[in-house]
Write a structure and sequence with these properties.
Length: about 375
């Protein structure tokens, strides 16, 4: 193995363009569509990379499972000069989709600005290497470009995570970038013009809405696509199953993949707690205060697998699952403990022998 490849294997979390390098290569090779300026492949191939299919003999695994039309709209947005904003509840694959879109379109998903309350205009535009600035004055070498400026220069895709967490003046700095497609650097007396292919994919969480409501001026520059929670039980099970096996293999977890029965139980519990109703719609259920998204179901199962692999027989038991469920559902709130207790007693206990083992294990922990 080449030295570079060995190093890549040590990376804790591989970016999408490395993880799916073979798929991306296969798609580029067989691409016969029209490739937009600055793109690595045609919009049809980008779509295939995201929703799955075949490129010659190579299997393309689905990255986003759900409504294909949404992905078509997302890709079509990026073909034009409009930016893309993915919004939705936590854990609805906004970040995952934006990473995979950037990997397919631009070949790199790493030009990221993480939106926080502390994000400043400099993170969006540029800043200076102050030692060099003091020594030599403003020179191109002393300029520290933001990921967005680098994407403009390269004609690539920049990602802006959790954009609604930024203060409004930071969000406003984006408006001029998105409408003028330039960043001026008055200190150097020059302007940086975006090359063809430049765009921004931003994400925002609907639970954060109201922290800093995005201005209409900024919203108008984005095409907004809402990613929904998985539509039905079987879709959600499919998503969880696929991601758990991918994540478990990347951690080299020496545990058996969760049985279909365990997946069914976890996803059922999650969907019922989330919707406030049993799946057959016959009984009402209280929802915990915290978020119980698909992403949580995925991490719950991988955590339970780690428990089973490290301290159990390698087979996922009801006790391992119960420990995971407790952590996912009862966050820091005593009310959650009560909600979970009620669910256990009113719903799960009555579900009969198949659920008994899990019920007992959950009951034991949720004292
Ligand atoms: N419809 C889906 N298709 C494929 N994977 C999904 C889907 N929904 C959720 N996931 C998985 O859920 C996990 C979490 O997704 P991600 O971190 O992108 O969520 P998010 O929407 O950005 O959440 P947050 O708002 O908390 O940042 C990922 O591993 C992703 O694969
Ligand atoms: Mg995210």
């Amino acid at each position: 193995m080449a030295a570079g490849q060995e190093q890549l294997q040590d990376i804790m979390r591989q970016p999408a363009e490395i993880l799916f390098r073979h798929e991306l290569e296969a798609l580029r090779e067989e691409d016969s569509g029209n490739i937009p300026a600055g793109w690595q492949m045609s919009p049809q191939s980008v779509l295939k990379f995201i929703v799955g299919g075949k490129a010659g003999p190579t299997e393309i695994t689905p990255k986003y499972i759900g409504n294909k039309r949404l992905i078509e709209m997302a890709v079509a947005t990026l073909v034009t000069d409009r930016a893309l904003l993915l919004i939705g509840e936590p854990g609805t694959a906004k970040s995952w989709l934006s990473e995979n879109l950037a990997a397919a379109i631009y070949g790199k998903s790493g030009l990221v600005v993480q939106g926080t309350a502390g994000t400043s205009e400099e993170h969006v535009r540029y800043s200076w290497n102050y030692a060099m600035l003091l020594a030599q004055g403003p020179t191109p070498e002393a300029l520290v470009q933001s990921p967005i400026m680098r994407a403009m220069e390269a004609g690539g895709i920049a990602r802006f995570e959790e954009i609604s967490r930024c203060a409004s003046e930071v969000q406003d700095a984006l408006i001029s970038i998105l409408s003028e497609k330039t960043i001026s650097v008055p200190e150097l007396g020059k302007e940086m013009n975006a090359r063809k292919g430049f765009s921004i994919i931003a994400t925002a969480n609907t639970r954060d809405r109201g922290v800093n409501e995005m201005s209409t001026a900024l919203k108008r520059r984005f095409n907004i696509i809402v990613l929904p929670a998985p539509a039905d039980l079987s879709t959600e099970i499919e998503i969880v199953k696929k991601r758990v096996s991918e994540i478990a293999s990347s951690y080299d977890l020496q545990a058996a993949a969760p049985a279909d029965e365990a997946l069914l139980k976890v996803v059922t519990i999650f969907r019922e707690l989330r919707s406030g109703m049993t799946l057959d719609k016959k009984e009402k259920v209280k929802s915990p205060a915290g978020v119980i998204s698909t992403a949580e179901a995925i991490s719950l199962l991988t955590n339970s697998m780690a428990l089973a692999a490290s301290f159990g027989s390698g087979e996922l038991t009801d006790e391992d699952l119960a420990a995971g469920l407790q952590g996912a559902i009862v966050k820091d709130d005593d009310k959650d403990r009560l909600v979970w207790k009620e669910y256990l007693d009113n719903i799960m206990k009555k579900r009969g022998a198949q659920w008994r083992g899990l019920y007992n294990a959950c009951k034991e922990i949720n004292q």
